Every structure is written in structure tokens, then in C-alpha cells.
Protein 1
Amino acid sequence: MFDKVRIDTEMADNGINEIEGQVRSRVLDAAERLFCEKGFDGTSIRDLTAEAECNLAAVNYHFGGKEKLYMEVFRRRMLAMRDYRISVINEVMSGGQGQVRLEDLLGAFVKAFIQPFVEEKGGVRFTKLMAREMFEPHLPRSVILEEMVFPVLTVLEEALAKVCPGLDGDKAVLCIHSLIGQLLHVIRTREVFAGVEGQRLAIGDLGQVIGHIVKFSAAGIRAAGKAGQQD
């Protein structure tokens, strides 16, 4: 008798947790769409509850208000991208048996960096959110730097130092800034010129662009590594 009560209670709790998880995800998805379209200031709590088909109590229960909800929208995407990029770097470095080519490392990282932004609806929305955040900041800078930028930077810097002797310290960081600058330009340019034909700045063949960035960056990084060995 007692075992049946315990099982029924556990099943009920699991059902409640599943429903709460669904509500939380629905609020995050709705908030991402609205923050992307209207920005933080242009999105009201009433907009959020209507889009997510929930009440104010659900928003406050799961997120504690609009500011924390905005942060969680970013963290959900950022942490997934961070973990994916780090895992790709680690996979490349562990699979070469000490003979990893610079082009292999760069190619894997470039694809891991770009693809989530250009191939998924959520990634495209996150691109727009990041653009809004640059001009209308609402997040503490530490959130992006400490949870996204620094962890990836550290792993990529260590990997570059292994595949390109002489490239360490400030030289590696500068090369990474150059690489990421190219990638951010590609992502932004694809969005700005989407659907525009005959425009020389439009980026159509993403594979060709990735190949160019890898080849161009590898040459620059090797040059920086040689200069480092001569210092």
C-alpha cells in the first residue's frame, strides 16, 4: 500500500516537473523571439506572457523578472555555443596523435563558430540579439566575457601554441582576435545582404568563404609564429 502511494507520488512529481520544464522552455523561446524583434526595452511583460501563453507568476517563478529572463535567454545560447566550440577544438587536438595541422584546427573551429549562427533559426535570432546588445547593452560585460569568451579563448590559445611553435602569449591572442573578427564580419554581412542579388559584398558560397578564411589566417598565424621564434 505504502509502495503504491510512493510510486504514485513520484509519478505525479515527475509530471509536474515535466510541465514546469515545458513552461520554462516556452517562456525562453517566446522571450528570444520578442527580444530579437523589439529589443529589451520594447518588450513588456504583457508581451511575454501573451507570446508564451502563460501568466506573470510563471515568469517570476522561473526567472524572477524580465532582467533575469533576458540574461537566461543569452546564457542558454552562449553556453551551448561555448561548449560546442571547446569540444570541437579538443576533438581535433586529441585525434591527430601529435600531428595536427594548423589548417585542420582552424577549419574545425571556423565551422563550429559560424554554423550555429547561419543554419539555425535560433542562431540567426541570437545574431540579432547580440547586435542589439552591442548598441543597447543590458547585460553585465562579465557575463559574456567570463562565461563565453575567456573559456574558448584559453582552449584555442593553448591549441594554437601546440600546432604553431613560436605562437604564444600576446601573439596568439592577437591572431585569435583577427580570426574571430573575420568570422563576425561574415555572420553580420550575410544577415545585412540576405536576399540581395548582384551585390559584391554578399556572401553566397559559405564553404568558399570558410576555405578562404582558413587559408588566409593560417598564413598569417604561421608568419606570426616564425616572428615569435626569432624574437
Note: The chain has two domains: 1-64, 73-230.
Protein 2
Amino acid sequence: MSSSDGPGAGGAPEGPIRAVLFDLDGTLLDSVPLILDSFLHTFAACGIPHPGDDVLRHGLGIPLRSYFAQWATDPEQMERMIAVYRDYNLSNHDARVSAFPGVVDMVRQVRAGRWATALVTSKNRSASERGLALVGLSGTMDAIVTCDDVRRPKPDREPVDLALARLGVTAESAVFVGDSLHDLESGHAAGVRTAAALWGPFNREELAAGAPDYWLQQPADLEDVLHGR
């Protein structure tokens, strides 16, 4: 039985869903512990004190350049922080990243149906494609939008708008599945329906401010959303 509770924002578009947009880290990939460790490794290597757990978690779902801008004092330091982060993250990626239980089946069921698919992530393209390949999801996205493709990343609407344009679908016919407030805010700003993935790092109380249209306790709950149940 689905754990989605139906519309939560009160103003969700009506009508059939024709496209599903997915966030990557924390939604499809269980990669958040590695991301947080990569932040800590970068801060230690660059002589930056531990900023606190809340500040660390705030970096989830936004591009590295946007996040590290709080500490980088010049372009050279910014590039060093990004390089240190990526070296550590990629060196540990394949051993520490996996798909959340049920996610691969969920995506494949969406693909087997009538729905178009897109990835909308704040990661760069090479890392995004590596993650999809690692868990067996290469070729499952009709469009991929990364931080390399936009000037204004999530929580701005631009990444979602671009994904819709590449799929050739309207906002009213799409739903964005994500695990963070950045995803929900980006989706709402673009006029798509939003579904909060509660298997990610943020709980229902933390995501409530994003007023998702649907709550998904587990990946299989997306089926009820797509079928209007």
C-alpha cells in the first residue's frame, strides 16, 4: 500500500503525469555519508575548522562552487577546495556509493511505462554519469541536467525548466522526485508537482517547509502517484 499522502501543497497541477524528474544524491544514490566525509576531508586539508553538522548538511544538493564560496577567499583557493573534494570523493566513490533499496526497480518501472525521465542534479556531468553507471541506471534518463548546464542551480527553477524543455513536456504534466528542500523549492518554482523522498537524509519534519505535493515513504510509492491513486 502506498505511503504517499496525496497533494500536500494544495495547489498541485491536475491531470496525468507524463514525465518524472529525479534528483540524484540522496534520492537515487545512497551517497550522502561520502559527500559529508568529502566536505570534512576538504576542510581539514585546507585548514578550515569543522563548520558544524548543520552547515555540513546545508551543502547537500547544491554545487560545490556555491557551497565553498563561504570559505574560499580567492579563485585559487576555490579551485583547490574543489580539486581536493573531487579527488577524495572519486577515489572512494565506487566503494561507498550504492542505490537505495527499491530505487533501480522504481526507475525501470517508470521507463517501462509511458513516462519520460530526466535527471536533475547539482553534481557535474561526469560524476553523475559515473553514479548512474555504478548502480546499473545508465541509459535510463531521457535527459540529464547537471550543474554544468545551468547558470542558476537549484533551488532556482532553471534546472527543472531545462529538463522540461529537453523532454518536450509541460510543467503541469511532470513530477520532481527529490530528497531536499532545494529540490522541492526548484520544482515548485517551475510549476511541477513535487514528491519528497523520505528514504534520503532529511526527515518529514525537515522537508515540511517545502510543502511537497506527495510524500514517498519508499520508492515503490511513486507508482501510486503516477497512476493517480
Note: Confidence is low (pLDDT under 50) at residues 6-10.
Protein 3
Amino acid sequence: MPIRSMTGFAQVKGQAGPQLAFTLSLKSVNHRFLDLHFRLPAESDDLEMKLRRLLKEKMARGHVEVTLNVERSGGAAFSLNREIVGGYIQAFRTASAEFGLAADPDLNAVLRMPGVLEAGHLSADGELLPAVLGRVEEGLAKLNRMREEEGRGIERELRQRMSHVQESAASVESYRKAMLQSYTEKLNARMQELIGNQVEPERILQEAALLVDRSDVQEEIVRLTTHVQHFVGLLDEGGEVGKKLDFLLQEMNREANTLLSKTSGLAGEALKITEAGLGMKADIEKAREQVQNIE
């Protein structure tokens, strides 16, 4: 399965009888988990349960809004719930008599009460539910095509970012030898400042070698390279890999931070290690922004 973005929109229309048309809209954006929201006509509990079950089978992550609009033509579009209206009028007259008020019920207020106007019986003839379920597969297919198209664009950028990270790691590796020279010069200057010219060159080299050993970034480079290879492998694999990619980028960012902390204060040619590390971090952060929208 290809890489999918969590952002998409799809809409399908259908008929549930000669006088009943509907529009089903699906809209999704990024979210850590699968978060389903339904905007359906009243008395659609059975339809909502079936749609929820189907969406959970077809989608893994994302905030998804499902909207169903129903349009009727011909005949009475609404029916009056006489039981609710009668109860309201009786309560109104009882209160008027008890408190000695001369007033009539407000019809506009009555009609605004929940449940007073019923938009027909959506599934009285059993046609709406199967009609909607018969088109939801088409809607999901359209939604996923849009998500896959955007996912291909994200995947291309992520591969470019990983290529840049790999190049930066190789650049750091190429300048590791310059680190010894930089540390040697710094140590020599410091020791000359403290004890004068009575320092053996061999001692300076030993101290510099120890300093380089404690500050070596070889392990960070190896781990970064491994993470990049794993990341690209997941892109090749496809499917629902968003969370795994995000975890790998967190690990890459940690290695880049360690690398920069170990090489702070370098001068001369070795300063290019810091430049490469900063470029590496920039690519990792931009990749993390894109990964947040992958299913």
C-alpha cells in the first residue's frame, strides 16, 4: 500500500428512491489517532454504527468528518410530532391559568423545539441506509486517491531530506581528521598560556588525542546512517508508517544534538562539522513537519 497523507476530501451523491436524494461528504486532516465525527440526520444511529465500522476497517489515522445531507422532492418534507406539541400547549395553558396570564402559545417557539418537526422517516422504507452504504465505498476510494496523491509528494520530499542528512553525515566524517588538528592547536595554546614553553610536543599530542577520543562523533555518524537507512526502508515498504517515521526522526534529532554538543567551539576547517550538523538538524526538522501528516 502506498504512503498516504491524512489530508483529503471526497463527495458522492446518490438517490434513495424517486423523491429522496443525498450527498455524502468525507473530509480528513491529520491526527495522532483515528478520530471519527459524524453529522447525520436524526434517527441515523444504525447508519452511523455501520459507517463507523467501515471507516475503522479502511483507515488507520486522521480526524475524519462524515457529513450526510438529505434532500426531498415532492410531498411533505416535514411531519409534526403531535404528542410533543400537544404536551407543550397543555403545559402552557396550565401555567397561564395558574398564574392568571392572558396569552397564547407562540407557534414559532413551538416549532423550534427539538423533535417537533421530523424530516420524514429517513429509513421508513429501508432505502436510505443501503443506498448510502452502497456509495460510501466510492467515497472512500476518492478520499484515499487524494490522500495517496498528496502522500507521493510528501514521500518525494522525505527522500530528498534523508539524502541531505546522509550527505551531511558523510561531510562530518570527512572532517573528523581536522578535529584532531583543531583540538591540538587549542590545547597547545592553552598549555603555553599556563606553563610557558616547557611543554613537549608529544605530551600535547597525547592530550589532544584523549580529548578527541572523548569528543569523537563516529558513533553518532554510524547511528545517523543506520536511522536514515531504516527510514528509507520504511518508505519503500509503504503503508501505515507515520508513527515509525516520526520515532526515527526523533532519534536522528537526538544524535544530531549530541554531535553538535561534542563539536562546539571548533575553529578553522573543523568548523565545517558544525555547519554540516546544523544543516542536518534543519533537514530533520523539516522532515518531521511532513511526517506529522502521514497516516
Note: The chain has a mean pLDDT of 83.
Protein 4
Amino acid sequence: MADQQASESTVQRILNAAITEVSTYGNERVTVVSIARAASMTHANVYRHFESKTALFDAITQAWLKPLEGRLGEIADAPDPARDKLERLVFAIVRAYRGRINTDPRLFKLFVEAFHENRATARQHRARVRILLDRVLEEGISTGAFAIRNRERAMTLVLDTLYRFVQPEAIELDSEVASRTSDNRLATITTMLLNALGSSIV
């Protein structure tokens, strides 16, 4: 138990140092050596816990995605009507992504690169979000909130409609758009999407 706690403490020290280094200098300039120095340990010790700099960067991304996925799961499991839950899921995802890029664009860049390179971190996150969205669509069908004929086509419609708001690279491109403007666009698009899901067009 003591060894496990010591290992977890070391991992957290490494992650904290890596977050500070990336936030300060950007991922292109950060090295495992500089992270180790900031964590007051050897770079060999960093490699004992993370096989590469990319693995360490993915761990940073996972650290903030995991709580988000937990919140999304709570929304999907809530007793609200499916239409309300889908809207809440969409806004929770978008606000979390936008909040990340607004508070620390250099850390958000790690997320963008994971998606661009289709790494496991990005694939797993996409899969978890898709599962939750699909669960709400299924619930909406069973309760009559959505008049969906083909659930796979409905999921494609959801993802395509929301692409600009949930795709990391698109979010990065739109990072200079005012929050109020972005919120208004999202509200309009989400209303159109919900109406489409209730009108038997998919």
C-alpha cells in the first residue's frame, strides 16, 4: 500500500510539473528532461511512469476529460426528458471544451493534437461521449420524444450538426469568437437539431 501511494504521489508530481511546463512554454518547447527538472527528479524516473512525452501529454488530457465524462454521465442518467438531457449534454460538452481553451489554450492544444493524430485518448473520449448520446437518443425513441426511424442516421445528424462546436480543431479556429455569439449560434443549432429529431426526418 505504501509503495502504491508513493508511486501515485510521484505520478502526480510529474503531471503537475508537466502541466506547469506546458502552460508556460507550450508543448513544442517542453521536454521530458525539463519536466523532470521541474519535478525535482531524473528523467529516467519520469520514463519509469510514462513511456514517452506523448503518453505524458495524453495523461494530462485524460485528467480533465475524466471529470467531464463523469458529469456527462450524470446528465445522461438524470430523470429529465430526453430532449432536455440531449440539450444539456451538448451544452456541457461545448462549455467544457471552450472553458479549457479559454483558461489554458496550450493545454487545449494537447487535446487538439490527440484528436488530430487519432490517439487512444481521443478515440476513447469520442466513444464515451457517443455512448452517452446514443443512450439519450434511445431513451427519446422509447418515450416518444424523438421520432427517429434510424438511430445510426440520427447519431450522424447529431455529430455532423454539432461539428463546429465539438471538434477540437474547429473550436481552436473559433477561439476568437465572442462567447455570447457562440452561445447564440449553439442555441440556434441545438433547437434545429432537436426539432429535426422529433420530426421523423431520420
Note: DSSP finds eleven helices and no strands in the chain.
